[in-house]
Amino acid sequence: MKIEPDTLEHLVLYLAEDDWLPIGNASAHAADFESDIPKRKARLLAVISALAAEGYIRIGDLEYRNPATKTGLHWVGWPGTLAGKMERLEKVYTPEVKDDKDWYYGCWLDLTDAGEQVVQALPAPDARFFEGLI
To answer: Helices 37-53 & 8-18, crossing angle to 10 degrees?
Structure first.
């Protein structure tokens, strides 16, 4: 899979490089490519599936190492096949539900070493993707 600069694939990898990427942030940036929410959801799910299939990202969630004291937050991959993870993500990622932002942090993406190599080989995404975010 060749990642072109300033595509949604590029942006998802770039955003996941700094730290784990919540699905809500990925969705917000996907709005730069698709304003219609159902189409945006479908497009982002397809991008995540393709990136995960290539081994560039992992799909999971954040958990506390010690839930009783709520300390030691770390990333944990979802178990199962890619198809199973995507099915779970489709249920968790619900931007079409009005007045419900629980989905925003319902899934986190983690950049792999292979994904890191792709990001390092590409230029930074165009500044237009980050206007108004500071």
So the answer is: 70
